[in-house]
């Protein structure tokens, strides 16, 4: 009985404990990780559709939801091609799962699902499976098994879905599906036995895992079980999740969003006028034409800070190279070329030394039918110059250094001939992204520009991307570039992996499909600018243009053919950041504040560097051609003002470091490199002075010797004109006489300009004086020591040679006489020893 009572007491206590812990268990048993559909945001937001108006755009990277004490997992997904143009063609998606944690992941199930409602400008910002008014249905496309992934390893797989699987989920109008963009989500969840069996049934092969890299798996073909059919939304409007997709899966540990563009209905790019093709959301059922004007920058790689050499021109302009391919792609899109004048000047300035490929490229640019205009030299940013108080844009001072090394049939071309260009697109100014102020517009006007390109984050545009802006009664035509589309294009052009390129292409195609689908009864119109900061540095600069030409609803026009509208400066003309816009929330405000800080610091740093101009002018006074250094300094300032450095902190820091190194070389490039202590033997000799000139220019200096004592008497104390070879060391011999037998003396050497007014460098040499008698004695003793040591070496070598010869002779005798030979050898050895001693 007692044990039974004790047991009942224990059970009662346990029940009381459970009741006490019940609230906590309820919390722990809840949804620890919000549904991935509520966490995953669209990969693009705030698209500017027909008008090119100012919108806010954000990009949400791969979502990562980390389990307690679990590995950190990131997920990327993208279609191999963004367009679905056939109802029978398979659609493949590349998926990459990366374990960034310190321990291996568990096997998990990867689910691919799609929204069944087309994307519009309004729904781009909403979470997956929802829009601003109601939830939308989704359907499962495929499911596969992701094996365990080791720490810092990557697993890549390909999932292939038949277009027929996609088709039932597409909104239809009559017998045809509604063309447009549809979001697709990849979701990674924990794998249990039920999900594992389903996943295994739809997986053709397992992917390989790699450490710190990529691996391509076998294809995971989605069968009918994986697709699971289409799930309609419930009557209450709640999201209807696919039963197959949800079966056996826990909350998502990672997810990512991409999209596809369905285009298998009526003829692509054909405007649809029938009211039957207008959907409930007011958009059309097909993708209407989108007018696209494209600005293609023709610039130089960032490592070329001033003018390219002939060898660099050969690399840049090589047939089949990046620049050659970019120009060919630009011709397919009727693009407008924005050319850095450095390319034209360098090809002309090298004359016959310019490579054939460079000359052919210049001829191609001169004869092209594409409209073109010149950027500022080295693409120097006008907005930065306006902020620094410039009233006239900075320009090169001349190209004498370039043409002096060129080869020409007659006289070298003048500076005006080198920069001459027919700007068929008009006089267009292109400040850095996100920075347009009245001062910038005025500066552009002072330079003779009548048009100006601005991205949509810096202006407010309505009705069309081309309008007129009046500043101080001067009208300017403003071309408004769509900043959201430009950002997507920049991602594509700078993609470092195939998956990154696929993701960028999908984003770009989606934005343009949404723009075309929104244009009811007319055409959308957008200006796209390619990223001038990185385009010359990537291996595939034509990627964006190739993607655009694959979209047959894209109609390429010139900037003059863009739809007209109205334009005004944003924020009353204040400088805005490239990404800054309303609606960023607390995180956006922090980012904007940080960008404002570094941009403000940049202006301060530029002012400090440019304040060294008087020092450069002074140093130029020692050169035989002072204008060469002044011109080089102007080019160095222009590279600091480059538009790429105006929008990228790292690019600015790199440019600033280059300029500081250049200033160090120019301002401190003439040095006396002779040893601090020199020995003088005898009563007269010559002291060598070695002067190093690190500048690439010939300099003429004056050398003055100041004696610290009367122990030395130089033949002359002033060398009025000493010519220093460029980038080399020049030796000057100073004849001197000694007035003492031994001791030390100091000479102070001052190097100045030829007038003696501009100091360059000063150094004190210590001279060790040794008399002639002492020198001769040292030489005699040294020679005697050498002879004595040499005699000993010769004597030892000779003795060893004789001993070896006699030993050889004794050995031969021993071979004939047997044992008796040994005695003879011994005797012979004694005799030889005696002979050696006698000698």
3D structure, described in words:
With 839 residues, this protein is an alpha/beta fold. Among the domains are: 31-35 and 63-277, Immunoglobulins (Immunoglobulin-like); 588-667; 670-770, Immunoglobulins (Immunoglobulin-like, Sandwich), CATH 2.60.40; 776-838. Strands 1, 3, 5, 6, 10 and 13 form a six-stranded mixed sheet that branches. A hairpin with a 2-residue loop joins strand 8 (172-173) and strand 9 (176-177). The protein is extended.
Task: Summarize this entry quickly.
By secondary structure, the protein is an alpha/beta fold.
User: What name does CATH use for the topology of the domain at 31-35 and 63-277?
Assistant: Immunoglobulin-like
End-to-end Cα distance: 127 Å
State Rg. Answer: 40 Å
In terms of DSSP E residues, the strand content is: 15-25%
Question: Any idea what the CATH architecture of the domain at 31-35 and 63-277 is?
Answer: Sandwich
Please state the structural category: alpha/beta
CATH class of the domain at 31-35 and 63-277: Mainly Beta
**Roughly how much helix do the residues carry, as a percent range?**
25-40%
Low-confidence stretches: 1-5, 10-69, 191-250, 266-276, 572-591, 813-839
Shape: extended
Average residue-wise pLDDT: 76
Tally of helical segments: 24
CATH homology superfamily name of the domain at 31-35 and 63-277: Immunoglobulins
Largest sheet: 6 strands, mixed
Quantity of strands, as a count: 33
């Amino acid at each position: 009985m007692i044990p039974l009572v004790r047991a009942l007491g224990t059970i009662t206590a346990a029940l009381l404990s459970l009741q006490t812990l019940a609230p906590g268990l309820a919390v722990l048993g809840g949804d620890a990780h919000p549904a991935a559909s509520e966490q995953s945001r669209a990969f693009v937001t705030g698209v500017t559709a027909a008008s090119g108006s100012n919108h806010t755009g954000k990009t949400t990277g791969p979502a990562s939801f980390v389990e307690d004490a679990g590995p950190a997992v990131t997920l990327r997904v993208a279609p191999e091609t963004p367009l679905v143009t056939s109802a029978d063609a398979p659609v493949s998606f590349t998926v990459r799962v990366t374990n960034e944690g310190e321990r291996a992941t568990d096997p998990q199930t990867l689910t691919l699902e799609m929204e069944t409602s087309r994307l519009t400008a309004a729904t781009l910002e909403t979470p997956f499976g929802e829009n601003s008014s109601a939830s939308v249905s989704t359907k499962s496309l495929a499911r596969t098994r992701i094996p365990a992934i080791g720490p810092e390893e990557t697993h890549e797989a390909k999932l292939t879905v038949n277009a027929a699987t996609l088709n039932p989920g597409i909104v239809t109008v009559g017998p045809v599906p509604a063309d447009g963009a549809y979001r697709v989500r990849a979701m990674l969840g924990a794998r249990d036995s039920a999900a594992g069996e389903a996943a295994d049934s739809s997986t053709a092969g397992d992917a390989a895992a790699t450490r710190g890299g990529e691996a391509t798996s076998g294809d995971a073909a989605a069968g009918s079980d994986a697709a699971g059919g289409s799930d309609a939304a419930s009557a209450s409007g709640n999201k209807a999740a696919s039963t197959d997709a949800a079966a056996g899966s826990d909350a998502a540990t990672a997810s990512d969003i991409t999209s596809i563009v369905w285009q298998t209905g009526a003829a692509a790019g054909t405007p649809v006028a029938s009211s039957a093709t207008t959907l409930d959301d007011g958009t059309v059922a097909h993708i209407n034409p989108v007018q696209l004007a494209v600005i293609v920058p023709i610039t130089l790689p960032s490592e070329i800070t001033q003018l390219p050499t002939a060898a660099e021109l050969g690399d840049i302009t090589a047939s089949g190279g990046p620049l050659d391919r970019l120009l060919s792609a630009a011709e397919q899109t009727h693009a407008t070329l924005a050319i850095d004048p450095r390319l034209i000047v360098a090809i002309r300035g090298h004359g016959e030394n310019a490579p054939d490929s460079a000359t052919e490229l210049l001829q191609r640019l001169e004869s092209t039918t594409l409209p073109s205009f010149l950027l500022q030299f080295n693409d120097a940013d006008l907005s930065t110059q306006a902020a620094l108080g410039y009233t006239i844009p900075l320009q090169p001072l001349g190209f004498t250094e370039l043409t002096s090394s060129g080869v020409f049939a007659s006289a070298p071309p003048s500076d005006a001939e080198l920069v001459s260009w027919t700007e068929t697109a008009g006089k267009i100014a292109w400040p850095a992204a996100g920075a347009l102020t009245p001062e910038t517009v005025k500066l552009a006007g002072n330079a003779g520009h009548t048009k100006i390109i601005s991205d949509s984050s810096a202006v407010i545009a309505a009705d069309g991307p081309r309008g007129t802006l009046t500043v101080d009664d001067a009208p300017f035509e403003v071309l408004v570039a769509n900043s959201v589309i430009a950002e997507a294009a920049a991602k594509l052009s700078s993609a470092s992996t195939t998956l990154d390129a696929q993701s960028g292409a999908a984003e770009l195609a989606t934005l343009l499909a949404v723009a075309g689908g929104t244009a009811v009864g007319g055409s959308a119109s957008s200006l796209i600018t390619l990223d001038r900061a990185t385009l010359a540095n990537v291996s595939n600069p034509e990627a964006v243009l190739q993607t655009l030409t694959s979209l047959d609803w894209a109609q390429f026009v010139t900037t003059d053919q863009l739809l007209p509208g109205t334009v005004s400066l944003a924020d009353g003309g204040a400088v805005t950041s490239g990404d800054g816009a309303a609606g960023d929330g607390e995180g956006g405000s922090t980012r904007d504040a940080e960008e404002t800080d570094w941009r403000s610091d940049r202006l301060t740093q530029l002012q400090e560097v440019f304040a060294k101009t008087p020092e450069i002018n002074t140093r130029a006074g020692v050169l035989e051609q002072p204008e060469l250094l002044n011109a080089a300094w102007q080019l160095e300032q222009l590279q600091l003002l480059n538009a790429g450095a105006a929008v990228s902190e790292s690019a600015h820091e790199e440019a600033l470091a280059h300029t500081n190194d250049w200033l160090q070389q120019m301002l401190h490039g003439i040095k006396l490199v002779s040893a601090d202590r020199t020995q003088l033997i005898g009563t007269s000799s010559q002291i060598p002075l070695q002067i190093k000139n690190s500048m690439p220019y010939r300099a003429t200096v004056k050398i003055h010797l100041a004696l610290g004592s009367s122990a030395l008497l130089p033949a002359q104390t002033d060398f009025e004109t000493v010519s220093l070879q460029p980038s080399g060391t020049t030796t000057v011999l100073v004849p001197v006489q000694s007035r003492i037998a031994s001791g030390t003396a100091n000479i102070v050497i001052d190097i100045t300009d030829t007038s003696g007014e501009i100091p360059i460098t000063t150094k004190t040499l210590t001279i060790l004086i040794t008399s002639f008698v002492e020198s001769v004695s040292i030489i005699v003793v040294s020679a005697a020591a050498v002879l004595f040591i040499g005699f000993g070496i010769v004597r030892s070598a000779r003795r060893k040679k004789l001993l070896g010869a006699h030993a050889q002779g004794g050995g031969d005798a021993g071979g004939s006489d047997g044992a008796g030979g040994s005695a003879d050898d011994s005797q012979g050895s004694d005799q030889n020893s005696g002979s050696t001693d006698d000698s």
